[in-house]
Amino acid sequence: MEDKQHESNNLFEQLKKLDTEQRNPNTRSIDLADPKDIARLINEEDKLVAEQVGKRNDQIAKAISITAEALQEGGRLIYAGAGTSGRLGVLDAAECPPTFGTDPDKIIGLIAGGKEAMFVAQEGAEDFEENGRKAMDEISLSSKDIVCGLAASGRTPYVHGALREAKERGSKTFFVTTVPAEQITISVDVLIDVPVGPEVIMGSTRMKSATAQKMVLNMITTGAMIRQGKIYENVMVDLMLTNEKLKERAKRIIMMFADVSYNESEKLLEEAGGHVKTALLMALGELSKQEAKALLDQHDGFIRKAFLSLQG
């Protein structure tokens, strides 16, 4: 009983010091505000988030480089988080296959409490480091992989357990948090601390903290995909044609870059087996499917490099 009380006291003291658990002086009268003022106050605080993220561009760039290299060498990017942070990791992982044509097993989102926690909070699931360690074991984490811990508070035991297990296995580690670095008690390869300050509603890290984390994750995965040739100019050209919208987008991309008709773009996609990059290079270089695929392989999947080689 005394141990439990001591543990509760420690947690209380930790939370009391966290930036995200402080009262925001700008929103102390929000309970009396009308709807327009509520919207304005939230928006004013949200404007501060992008500025804070921008101060960590160097760390984010390092994470992009490490991720691109790991994926190229057969590794995986594993997100580990709890609550809102965990859901953001799952979301980012789920968005990569249709957007960039990645293997669903290459970027994985893990949340304390499992799949059920995506929809209904699983109380207590985040409170034990052992749960995070076990999650790494369940996915057979290897030294080729990267584990990116997500915790607004910087202290979530589940996340710390995952990161410590990753370190012991020789995996690279990132930590994305929204409290200052001096409040972090765990060592990682890349710390991306984005101190967004007190939330609009004290402790509600689904607000500014979540926005900051989502921005960082977008930058890491998008940057890594750019570095792997999944973008041509500023257009995603390695998308998977899993629904009608994506099929039509693929046709439009080919029409836009290769100056061909709708019917021609549709025919090219069919000939390329639905692989947009192959179809596009076939159109740009007047190549067969086999020639286009061989040229893409020769240039590590970069369409621009492949196309320029034809002109040189």
TrEMBL record:
The lineage of its organism: Bacteria, Pseudomonadati, Balneolota, Balneolia, Balneolales. Homodimer. Coiled coil: none annotated. Pathway: Amino-sugar metabolism; 1,6-anhydro-N-acetylmuramate degradation; Cell wall biogenesis; Amino-sugar metabolism; N-acetylmuramate degradation. Pfam families: GKRP_SIS_N (PF22645). Gene3D superfamilies: 1.10.8.1080, Glucose-6-phosphate isomerase like protein, domain 1. Residues 1-31 are annotated as: Disordered. Residues 67-230 form the SIS domain. The active site is at 95 (proton donor), 126. This is N-acetylmuramic acid 6-phosphate etherase. Specifically catalyzes the cleavage of the D-lactyl ether substituent of MurNAc 6-phosphate, producing GlcNAc 6-phosphate and D-lactate. It is an enzyme of class 4 (lyase). It comes from the Bacteria. A lyase-type mechanism (elimination/hydration) is suggested for the cleavage of the lactyl ether bond of MurNAc 6-phosphate, with the formation of an alpha,beta-unsaturated aldehyde intermediate with (E)-stereochemistry, followed by the syn addition of water to give product. CDD domains: SIS_Etherase (cd05007). Belongs to the GCKR-like family. MurNAc-6-P etherase subfamily. InterPro entries: Etherase_MurQ, Glucokinase_regulatory_CS, MURQ/GCKR, SIS_dom, SIS_dom_sf. It catalyses: N-acetyl-D-muramate 6-phosphate + H2O = N-acetyl-D-glucosamine 6-phosphate + (R)-lactate. PANTHER family: GLUCOKINASE REGULATORY PROTEIN. It comes from Halalkalibaculum roseum.
